[in-house]
Design a protein that fits this description.
Layout (H helix, E strand, L loop, with lengths): L13 H34 L16 H30 L6 E8 L2 E6 L4 E3 L1 E5 L4 E7 L4 E5 L4 E5 L5 E5 L5 E7 L12 E6 L1 H9 L7 H11 L24 E3 L5 E3 L2 H9 L22 H13 L10
Helix pairs in contact: 1-2, 4-6, 5-6
Bound molecules: dinuclear copper ion.
Length: 316
């Protein structure tokens, strides 16, 4: 619609049209009521102006229908906005089950992207057309914010946490990526591009190769070099919990609480192992705070995700 003008960003994801529809509805609503109110002000000023210096206005003591109207009509309009807005929000907040996952690490002042196959990119993100993409994001330092106007998606990127956004690109091309949270001197230069490619081109790009191994493979090497495998053994004889098949499961903690094993829990268990110890284990694991970078944490998480449950005799 507005693509020829710089006033409005291109619309290049499935959610973009829904966001725009709501936006234009709000805009039309604002234009309609602003015009109506401004028009009525002028009309009433002319129609009811004082005609002689000693004229007095007639006192009005309420009008039930009028008051009901100006209460009920705005109520209904705001409910439409609420329900419509909530449905768009839920669609944005809930990624589909099958997504292409890409990790994002923000730092002053660049964006680092890690594909599961091992490709790494800086300030440029290649994604295939027509496939839902989920970004799992964290920051090495301060709060940043990923914003891709053409996709109408935006989310804070926080140190010590994983946040996610998802989008399904509908048009091949290159789209701006901005940092939308003031993060220091060169915040305004913390930009990049999302490159949406045809699936075949994307495959070709992917096979162009990352230097050495997928994320999970690198995680596996790291797991061995940090000697994690001496305690986390697949045979349930180790001093730490078996990690095979663990990701996505619910585990019981010493405190009796339960927790779902997700990215955040794995991350915390590496950096602050005694925070949430699995029931039946001793808090003997040392912290790896300062020993692994945010990117290595992502490799370890991908490795844990990749571990399939092995059939075994349960000893407890
Ligand atoms: Cu990063 Cu602003």
């Amino acid at each position: 619609m507005w693509t020829g003008t710089p006033l409005f960003p291109e619309s290049a994801s499935t959610i973009a049209t829904r966001v725009d529809a709501l936006y234009f509805f709000l805009l039309a609503l604002a234009v309609f009521f602003s015009t109506l109110i401004a028009g009525l002000i002028v009309y009433f000023a002319v129609r009811f102006h004082r005609r002689s210096p000693d004229q007095l206005g007639a006192q009005i003591h309420g009008g039930l229908m009028l008051e009901l109207t100006w209460t009920v009509v705005p109520f209904l309009i705001t409910m439409v906005i609420f329900v419509w807005g909530a449905s768009v929000f839920f669609a944005m907040a809930r990624p589909p089950d099958e997504t292409l996952n890409i990790y994002v690490v923000g730092k002053q002042w660049m964006w680092k992207f890690q594909h599961l196959d091992g490709q790494r990119e800086i300030n440029e993100l290649h994604v295939p057309l027509g496939r839902p993409v989920k970004l799992i994001m964290t920051s090495e330092d301060v709060i940043h914010d990923v914003f891709v106007p053409a996709f109408r998606v935006k989310a804070d990127v926080l140190p010590g946490r994983y946040t996610t956004i998802w989008f399904n690109p509908t048009k091949a091309g290159r789209y701006h990526l901005f940092c939308a949270e003031y993060c220091g001197t060169r915040h305004s230069g913390m930009t990049g591009e999302v490159v949406v490619m045809d699936p075949t081109e994307y495959q070709a790009w992917l096979s162009g190769g990352g230097p050495g191994g997928s994320l999970a493979e690198n995680g596996s090497k790291l797991f061995a070099s940090l000697a994690c495998n001496t305690c986390h053994r697949p045979d349930a004889q180790g001093r730490g919990p078996v990690l095979e098949g663990l990701f996505g499961k619910t585990v019981t903690l010493q405190s009796g609480e339960t927790i779902t094993v997700d990215e955040a829990y794995v991350r915390e268990s590496i950096l602050n192992p005694s925070a949430k110890v699995t029931a039946g284990f001793q808090p003997i694991m040392p912290t790896f705070q300062g020993l692994v970078t945010e990117e290595q944490l992502l490799e370890l998480i991908e490795y844990v995700k990749s571990l399939q449950a092995v059939p075994q005799v349960q000893t407890r």
